[in-house]
Amino acid sequence: MKDQADRPLPTFEDVIAAHERIKPYIHRTPILTSEYMNKLTGAELFFKCENFQKAGAFKVRGACNAVFGLSDDEAAKGVATHSSGNHALSLSYAAGRRGIPCNVVMPRTAPQAKKDAVRGYGGIITECEPSTTSREAVFAEVQERTGADFVHPYNDPRVIAGQATCSREFMEQVEGLDAVIAPIGGGGMISGCCLTLSNIAPHVEIYAAEPEMADDAYRSFKAGHIIADDAPNTIADGLKVPLKENTWHFVSQHVTDILTASEQEIIDAMRLTWARMKIVMEPSCAVPLATILKNPEVFRGKRVGVIITGGNVDLDKLPWMAG
Amino acid sequence: MKDQADRPLPTFEDVIAAHERIKPYIHRTPILTSEYMNKLTGAELFFKCENFQKAGAFKVRGACNAVFGLSDDEAAKGVATHSSGNHALSLSYAAGRRGIPCNVVMPRTAPQAKKDAVRGYGGIITECEPSTTSREAVFAEVQERTGADFVHPYNDPRVIAGQATCSREFMEQVEGLDAVIAPIGGGGMISGCCLTLSNIAPHVEIYAAEPEMADDAYRSFKAGHIIADDAPNTIADGLKVPLKENTWHFVSQHVTDILTASEQEIIDAMRLTWARMKIVMEPSCAVPLATILKNPEVFRGKRVGVIITGGNVDLDKLPWMAG
User: Do B81 and B123 reside in the same domain of the chain?
Assistant: First the structure.
């Protein structure tokens, strides 16, 4: 399946163009601060609330950039992707705004709530078996039949340029940041941070936060080449996917360090954020705070931007209530 | 116990003075909007997020106004109140900021989490038995011993003037509101809305939202005099207290209507807000949305300001997970 990875890497001019293109369809999300969190960490933290973003996550930035960058001829055939997470929701939302079809290949075993949410945004689901072989075969069939443009969840240069608009806004909204930290899964958001900050604020440190239980980016970073795990298992379910060549390009060149946290540390940081900051966010979003609490010496005295990546969580299954 | 109810009713000049006085100690809370909620209700809704307020609720406005309005001599003796809810937290926070003692009388049966939270803000708890007789006796003893200034949770004119700063900010932040809606318990927030809006925007309708299971304000409003219930029982536990003479003054004169919602309607609206708007809020805050959904004809086509009053909720006991 053609995944646009062969397109040229995005430049900062692509980010500026992406920002203009997607502005009508996204929120300029607010920044929250918390005196309590500052005291607790010894840092000055600024939380960029992409959980308040359209479709509930930053992913809508990249999805809108891909969808609204298509020519009318291309767009007429629609877009397609495989995802059971926020990218599927976001691409369905973006396609709906443009009035074109969005085909999503999802394992038949995906939670009904996820399927309902994708359909709620107008996405057309084609189910596959829960295996890579089946997913690729079904996706190839869908793409063949529709001629749809494949928008990869994170390795697509258009997606990286779209995600990069988040840190661009962040720099406009908060002066004098010393560091930015975000969770890392496939690396789309972190690559966007690298792209923006290396161009407009190269002194700002970039930290990626990852679950210990899915620490393939951490091990890749230390080894100097991509290491992909087969089936990592973590409560931060948005972070299970591996780096790919385009995101690896940015991560390997511009990330300051990758820090990890245990499952319990992630759950504790998630609960603490809900309790003190009164925001609903996904487990993935708690990984940065968990790593800040675990490594206070790295962040003490700094002005740190923390990206809260999404808020699409199952309210019936909160991790601190499990068991 | 002397409860300051004999002080003169607050004027809009008191509100302006209160706003200046408390600004250093409170957040100017943000406004959130949701396309989804607008489609669902047919109205244009603006949510004023006092759940992001200091100490987690709007109550800190009134508490700060009372605490920072004291002379140094008065302040030296501290403040006191009886409450096991947000007023206790807020008064403890305000007193802590001024560096004076805050005595709180709480039933010994109050949840440990509430006691911990009050102590976390520096409040000194004196326990009483869970009865009005015991509470009054213990409170009188505390006041006698300390000489502390009694700050009533809602009937105190200084508290009403403080709460009134919320709707003043709201009018500055959103143009052309047709109506404002907030939950009603003792009536402090609604009285504040009445005080502000009757002075600066008398055309704006004021709706109060109340649980059916604790509808004493609704019945008072219809009857034309205060009706107090003995022990109402609702999941919206911030709204169990009755109106008193000062809040009744404002409610009876300026409220457009009082609307009610069932327990299930409140729970559904709460869950919907968490799921769609990604904010953590108390059950009480869901009563306005529940009544808007129940009475769409009242709000359709209007620009409606909804006050989300607080976010101090027990994350281990979410109402849709009960049983």
Answer: yes
